[in-house]
């Protein structure tokens, strides 16, 4: 009986400790999530009672709304361009930052610093860099005789500008890779060296296989983050030019707070959720073929 009372007391105390988080999750996360799901089936302009319209929002979005397909095209283009480059460049920088040289901690801090800067400051900085007439980038290109490029005003070029800007913050990916590299036992490299493997062979036979769990983590987190791009596009282009940067986040924001179509904005948000979840599950389903844990194929 004393043990039963003690177990009950511990259970109650544990429940009380998690109560603030639980209430916060129910009120500020799960509640709005379920409310937006309901609103996605309604016509709601922010005042009055929502009017139930069933699947009309989804049908209109998929068949009649050109702005939805603009957001799909621009978001997928950004993800397809940014994610592979961030994985490769982040790994390359991590390999350099893993070297035992003097002052390496300073270099690690410098490369990681852009990952912790605020989005608004970064957007304003890159808006100046990409300026067609007075931008730093065009100024450098002019030294080589290149013409001025409308990085933020040319619909054929603006996506490259956003991908380049996003790669500036690749330090977050680099840090995760660096942690994975430092967790690889040095004995494996010594054994491979004794077997006659050069640096490239050690990378393909030792480093890359043991780094696949970290690569998998970066793919998942990078995929989710890339689909949610918003503040840079909002500040720099507002979805232009010619809806070339009309990402999902902008579409949801403009639909809700400019057009006051909260029901339809909830529909777009849930389609974004479904798209991210589907791609995430697809990547996870393929992980058994290429992700290794403890030296064995999962």
Task: Write a structural description.
It is a single chain. This protein is mostly helical and 298 residues long. The chain folds into two domains: 1-39, no CATH class; 56-297, Orthogonal Bundle (MetI-like fold), CATH 1.10.3720.10. It has helices at residues 2-39, 56-63, 66-97, 104-112, 119-129, 136-142, 158-167, 171-182, 186-194, 199-227, 231-236, 248-257, 262-290, and strands at 42-43, 51-52, 292-293, 296-297. The strands form two sheets. It has a two-stranded antiparallel ribbon. α3 runs parallel beside α7 and α3 crosses α8. The chain is globular, with a radius of gyration of 24 Å.
Give the tally of structural domains: 2
Strand order of the largest sheet: 1-2
The number of helical elements comes to 13
Radius of gyration, taken over Cα atoms and rounded to an integer in Å: 24 Å
Binned strand content: under 5%
Which descriptors apply to this entry?
70% helix; mainly alpha; MetI-like fold; 2 domains; two-stranded antiparallel sheet; 3% strand; 298 residues; single chain; 4 strands; 13 helices
A few lines on this structure:
Helix content is 70%, strand content 3%. The chain is built from 13 helices and 4 strands.
Give the SSE layout.
Blueprint: H1 2-39, E1 42-43, E2 51-52, H2 56-63, H3 66-97, H4 104-112, H5 119-129, H6 136-142, H7 158-167, H8 171-182, H9 186-194, H10 199-227, H11 231-236, H12 248-257, H13 262-290, E3 292-293, E4 296-297
Antiparallel strand pairs: 1-2, 3-4
Helix pairs in contact: 1-13, 3-7, 3-8, 3-10, 3-12, 8-10, 9-10, 10-13, 12-13
């Amino acid at each position: 009986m004393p043990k039963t009372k003690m177990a009950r007391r511990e259970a109650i105390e544990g429940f009380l400790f998690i109560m603030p988080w639980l209430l916060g999750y129910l009120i500020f996360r799960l509640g709005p999530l379920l409310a937006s799901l309901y609103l996605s089936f309604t016509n709601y302009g922010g005042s009055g009672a929502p009017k139930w319209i069933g699947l009309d929002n989804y049908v209109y979005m998929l068949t009649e709304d050109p702005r939805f397909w603009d957001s799909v095209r621009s978001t997928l283009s950004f993800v397809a361009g940014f994610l592979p480059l961030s994985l490769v460049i982040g790994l390359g920088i991590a390999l350099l930052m893993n070297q035992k040289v003097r002052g390496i901690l300073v270099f690690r801090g410098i490369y990681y610093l852009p990952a912790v800067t605020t989005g608004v400051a970064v957007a304003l900085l890159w808006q100046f860099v990409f300026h067609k007439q007075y931008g730093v980038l065009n100024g450098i290109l002019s030294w080589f005789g290149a013409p001025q490029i409308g990085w933020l005003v040319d619909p054929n070029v603006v996506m490259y500008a956003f991908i380049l800007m996003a790669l500036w913050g690749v330090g977050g990916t680099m840090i995760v890779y660096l942690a994975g590299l430092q967790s690889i036992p040095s004995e494996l490299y010594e054994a491979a060296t004794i077997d006659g493997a050069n640096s490239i062979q050690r990378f393909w036979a030792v480093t890359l296989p043991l780094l696949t769990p970290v690569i998998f983590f970066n793919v998942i987190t990078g995929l989710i983050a890339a689909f949610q791009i918003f503040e840079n596009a909002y500040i720099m282009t507002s979805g232009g030019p010619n809806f070339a940067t009309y990402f999902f986040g902008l579409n949801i924001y403009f639909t809700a707070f400019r057009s006051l179509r909260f029901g339809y904005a909830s529909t777009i948000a849930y389609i974004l959720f479904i798209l991210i979840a589907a791609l995430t599950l697809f990547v996870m389903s393929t992980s058994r073929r290429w992700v290794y844990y403890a030296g064995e194929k999962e």
